[in-house]
């Protein structure tokens, strides 16, 4: 059973018991050596196998490259077995991890690598053709290329890699001078001894890129202490029904994203859980089939992922009687999705709130008695406050910008001198929120997304929650467009499976449930909405498209 923390002092002492993330991983590998650690595409690594493989890779990085402790290494992989191995190997070699989206273009990768000063990269063969253009324009000297099934048993490895390359043809030809195959690195590393590396709690562990509070990509510099603190804080809030060494967690969100990284690559190993890595959750049919193979107990996702699963005809037929905990984060959860998930699975969705700059979790709802819309009380050792437009402190119930302070909050952005957080450790989140009388948080919306209608603020999250409750609406997104009379007008983009649904019906539905100025003036039906790599609906993309269209229209006049 997961031990509940009795006091803040207990939590502080537990945080101090892990001087760095390497110690956290090493303890997990030793304590749960013969238990399953990570599974993917039909194969599983035990904690002992993970330990040994990571040791070989770390030794290779120490003895066969010019990398030194503190150098940055990019891990540019999807959810495959190699990811946790690379994380542990990089930590043991004293390197700083730069989690990188494998879907990035060459230009996006070059910008990130140059900003972070990346000297090494581990990349999937499917994307290796892209790295050809990257290496000459960056400081990268070490390139390791791995194939999808490199850590699967011999016969299965040969089969899956053959299918990927020659049947599905998803591995374009590439030529990267000096690149080393992942398995060759493991063989060479097995002949070397791993050298111990000193790491302090304040040493940098991860540079995690985010548009977060700034609106443009920046690297949140997260130390070992930041991440360990958040692991222990989050662990203290997990339900006591979770049992050490017995849980099976489904990981559909990419572990290169801070949400998936924290939960499935740090918290779950601490509990000795088995993590099932889902490589392509957008293949909903394949995802549902994979879920049918596991008696999973923990599931993490975001609103759009829950939508796609609930709408699949076979999802409701799965046996989910063992599911104990479903977590949602990353974007607002809508009431209709929450209700539908609970009806199908028997397990409510509990919401959390965080941001990359806070490692990332700030608050999570209690498992018992959580109200919809609440992201729960702040984690232990975490302070929050609500600030008005003039910088004044607001009282409980008042709406303003959320500020956060705690041991999980970064000290700043990589290669950036701006004072974020401020001198007292407070981080302005860019999120509009209010604190209830019971100290729980409710996130209203992103500050930059608020729509102004004749001086009245309109929060897209509120509208999306109500509009998506329509029986024929799968999902929706709300934005504000410039208007000479009212300042802005509301437009909603709707995805529906009912071709007979009309604009009038959507607006009538809104009129019955919303104040008149909140009713969208414009309604557009779409077959899909643009989403980020984790499935978050991109309102900004929709807005940019609309503004570009308006500009073209005005030019024609």
Automatic annotation (TrEMBL):
Keywords: Ligase. It comes from the Bacteria. Residues 27-414 form the AMP-dependent synthetase/ligase domain. This is Long-chain-fatty-acid--CoA ligase. Its EC number is 6.2.1.3. Pathway: Lipid metabolism; fatty acid beta-oxidation. It comes from Neptuniibacter pectenicola. It is an enzyme of class 6 (ligase). Pfam families: AMP-binding, AMP-binding_C.
